Amino acid sequence: MWFYLVTLVGLYYLLRWYREKQVVSNLQEKHVFITGCDSGFGNLLARQLDRRGMKVLAACLTEKGAAELRNKTSDRLETVILDVTNTESIVAATQWVKERVGNRGLWGLVNNAGISIPSGPNEWMNKEDFAKILEVNLLGVIEVTLSMLPLVRKAKGRVVNVSSILGRISVFGGGYCISKYGVEAFSDSLRRELCYFGVKVAIIEPGFFQTAISNSDRHFSHVKMLWDRASSEVKEIYDKKFLLSYLSELKILLGKMSTEDLSLVTDCMEHALTSRHPRTRYSAGWDAKLFYIPLSYLPTCLSDALFYRSSLKPDKAL
Ligand SMILES: NC(=O)c1ccc[n+]([C@@H]2O[C@H](COP(=O)([O-])OP(=O)(O)OC[C@H]3O[C@@H](n4cnc5c(N)ncnc54)[C@H](OP(=O)(O)O)[C@@H]3O)[C@@H](O)[C@H]2O)c1
User: What mean pLDDT value characterizes the chain?
Assistant: First the structure.
């Protein structure tokens, strides 16, 4: 019985491996547009695809980021300045891409740009704090996608949306997790609509990685700023002891528990763009695979119990 079961599972993985290792043809003629290439995953992916001979159209937020990227890559790679919260900037970038891809269309669109600040306890924030993150991480993804979609459809290409394991389970307050849940929902409906046109949509769900977005010093100073700004009522409920416990939890999450090797994520993105049979979802990082994804399938009472920390219980709580 066990023998048959193990053989069956082995056969499944062998077949999956064989299917997924098949690469699309003429990669060197294909254009890929990536947002948020100044740093982190976007920057590494741009360099990785450039080395592979693909035509990379890298969108950066700043001219400095774009110049630094061009210095590290071949002449094939071109850059454009794009702020995903600005409609005019998106329209201009789309026209720029159109001029480059011509009748071939755009093979790959990677929605990678993102921010994570301000994040913190929900009650310490206001509507604008939530909107700031949603503008970039969710509405930015939606507007860039809608704008580039005719070009992607022409190439029967790929849309790769960078979500997070925090799009599966919400572990802190603010707009970040909400935005990533939104990216998951948007990608799901997009995938179902676009399959009729030969366009494939993949979602990347990294765990915690060491990039600018997860820099613990930046998060520390923002949480302290939120605390300083909070009303006296909030400060009375969540006292200084809570603030210190919250900061030390944050230090563990963004420090010790985060992964250094960003290629674990960019390899997934590359596979989604180059494999004939890309996956629908890619989880990257040991924490995503072994902790957060299994946790997201647990009954809520169990996952809540795992996150319950007596040290994080405000003194004034019941
Ligand atoms: N690192 C992680 O642990 C982690 C985990 C899960 C998911 N992710 C996701 O992965 C993606 C990439 O993040 P990362 O970790 O590589 O962090 P990162 O190094 O901070 O990269 C984010 C990029 O987005 C750019 N950006 C910010 N606001 C923008 C805007 N309005 N328009 C265009 N570009 C903008 C940033 O430009 P500047 O550098 O000039 O600000 C930066 O280049 C994000 O969507 C993030 O949510 C990250």
Answer: 94
Catalytic residue among 12, 176, 238, 292: 176
Residue 176 known to be catalytic: yes
- pLDDT per position as a tens digit, 152-186: 999 999 999 999 999 999 999 999 999 999 999 99
Cβ of 115 below 6 Å from ligand 1: yes
Helix (H, G, I), strand (E, B) or coil at 209: strand
**Ligand 1 pocket, residue 213 CB under 6 Å:** yes
Q: Contact at 8 Å (CB) between 285 and 207?
A: yes
Q: Count of domains in the chain? A: 1
φ, ψ dihedrals at 205, nearest 5°: -125, 80
**Which tokens go with 290?**
């072994």
Q: Provide the CATH number for the domain around residue 179.
A: 3.40.50.720
Task: Show the domain range for 167.
Answer: 24-214+259-297
Q: Which residue has the tokens 């909400």?
A: 178
